[in-house]
Design brief:
The protein is mainly α. The chain has a domain of 37 residues. The chain has three helices and no strands. The protein is globular and about 35 Å long. The protein starts with 8 loop residues before the first helix and ends with a helix.
Length: 64
Amino acid sequence: MPSSPTLDIAGLEAVYDCLAEAIDAAGEPRRTLFLVKLALLNAQALGDAAQFARHVDEALQDLA
């Protein structure tokens, strides 16, 4: 089984910065729409609906 590509800490920080800037650029009224579009594009790139659902579950953990 091929290994999944991963990001190191620097890569994750770059992704975080990119995402934060994009969320700010989208603005408050379009923030949710932007995040949904981004999630769908990433789900399509991932190509695995079950894995995407696991990612959603993980992202929901510890939001409080």
